Amino acid sequence: MLRKILLSVLGVALIFGAFVFAKYLIDNKHKPKPVIPKVVKTVLVDTVKNGTIPVIISANGNLTSKQRIELYAEVQGIFKTGSKLFKPGQKFNKGETLIRLDASEYYAGVQSAKSSLYNSIASIMPDLRLDFPDIYPKWQAYLNNFDLKKSTPQLPEITGEKENYFITGRGIVSAYYNVKNLEERLSKYRIVAPFSGILTEALVTEGTLVRSGQKLGEFINTSAYEMEVAISKSFANILKVGESVSLTSLDKTKKYKGNVSRVNGSIDATTQTITVFIEVKHQDLKEGMYLEANVNAEKVENAIEIDRNLLLDSEEIYVVKDSLLDVISVKPAHFSSEKVVLKDVPDGTVILRKPVPGAYAGMHVKAANTNVSTTDSVQ
C-alpha cells in the first residue's frame, strides 16, 4: 500500500517537473531582437547664392558650304581636257576654268558675224564723210579700234535723229546686237570658277559629249560654312545676328568659334521652332561635319543652376534643415540637357549637391559642405 502511494507521488512529481521544464523551454525560445544601429547618411550640400545665370542653348547639325553652285551645261559640245582634272576633290582658284567645251565651229560663226558687222560699217564710211562730216570721226575711230580677236566694242553713241535713221536703216544696230548675242552664247562654252573652292561632284569626264541642260557637277567654297539649327520659339525675340557661338566636334576634341549669320523670320508650325544659321570659318572644317553649338540666348537674374536630376517631378528640391531633409517649391526658368535654372530659391538655403538614393522628407542626414557655390558650376 505504501509502495503504491510512493509511486503515485513520484509520478505526479515527474509530470509537474516535465510541465515546468517545458514551460521554461517555451519561455526561452523567443530571444530579444537585436538593436540595429540607426545609420545617418552623409550628403553633399551647397549653400544657395543667387546670381546672374547665362542661358546657353545647345543644338547640333551638319555643316554645309555657304557658297555652293550646281554646274549645268547651257550649250552642247565635246568636253575638252583642261589644265586640271575635272574630278571630285580638285581645287580651283577664282577665275580658273572649270569646264571647257569644244567651240571651234561656233567660234567660226561668231567671227563671221563680226566680220559682217565690220564690213557693214566700213561700207557706210564714204557716205558719212560726205553727208555727216561731224560724226564721221567717231565712227572712223570705232573702226580703227575694232579687233576681230577681241570682244566687239560698244557702238558709238547716236546723238541726232538723222544719224539714227541713217545708221539704223543700214542694219548696223541689229547686226551689232546679233554679234553680242552670239558672243554671249560663245562664253557659255567655258565655265570659270566664281570663287576659290573645291569640286565635290563630277558627273562628266573629259572627251565625252555634253548636252545642253545636263548637270556637270557641284562646286563649293571651302572658306566659310554654315550650320542650320532649330531653336525653340521662346528665344525668337532674343537671338540676334552676330551673336557669338561656341562649336565643338562630335568627339569633343576640337572647338571652333562661329556667329549667328541669319535668323529665319517664320516659326515652323509643326515643331514650333525657329531656324538659325550659324557661320563658322576654319581650315580644318569639311562639309558634312557634325558639330554641337552652344548659343548664348539670354541671362536670368537672381537665379541658380543645378543638375536636372535634383529637381523633383513636383517642381520641388530637397533642402537640409537641422540635419533633416525637407522639400521646397521652386520655379524652373530654363531647362538644358543636363542643367536647370531655378528662381525663387532664398539665399542661404542649404540644398543637395548630389542626389540621395531613397531620399524622403524627414530623413536624417549629415551635411558635408563642399564649399562650392551653386553658381560655380555654370559654364
Automatic annotation (TrEMBL):
Pfam families: BSH_RND. SUPFAM superfamilies: HlyD-like secretion proteins (SSF111369). Residues 70-216 form the Multidrug resistance protein MdtA-like barrel-sandwich hybrid domain. PANTHER family: MULTIDRUG RESISTANCE PROTEIN MDTA (PTHR30469:SF12). This is HlyD family efflux transporter periplasmic adaptor subunit. It comes from Winogradskyella litoriviva.
